[in-house]
# Entry
Amino acid sequence: MKLELKKFTYKLILLSIILLIVSGTMFFTILEKYYFSAFPFSFIVFIIVSLYSHYILLKAAKNNQTQFNTAFMLSFILKIFAYSLFVGVSLFLDKTNYIAFIITTMGFYIVYTVFDVVQILAYINKNKNDIEIKIQS
# Structure
């Protein structure tokens, strides 16, 4: 599991760097007037939440299908709660360019969620035989 989490962390950081370069370039050139102060913190929040969520799912994937399903729903709820809390606190502290902030956060949410799902499905498919043996036992 440690190796899988390490691989996921590497890929997550790579994705975040790519997003940072693309979105940062846009915010400092074309969309300069829409830049918001919480922009750099968005990456920190998304990385931490994704890592924690993936850790929960990796642990649950070692057990049975019911535990994995429960963990998947729990991680989804925790993500929604964490991102909502981040949005709420950020908007409370700084309301300037709130539309750009919400649109960017929604975009990041979609990208990171798709990334998380693809990564956990790849892990499950790769380890399908091990997981099926544990379910049958």
In short: Helices lie at 2-28, 39-61, 65-93, 98-126, 128-136. The chain has a mean pLDDT of 90. The chain has one domain: 2-136. The chain has five helices and no strands.
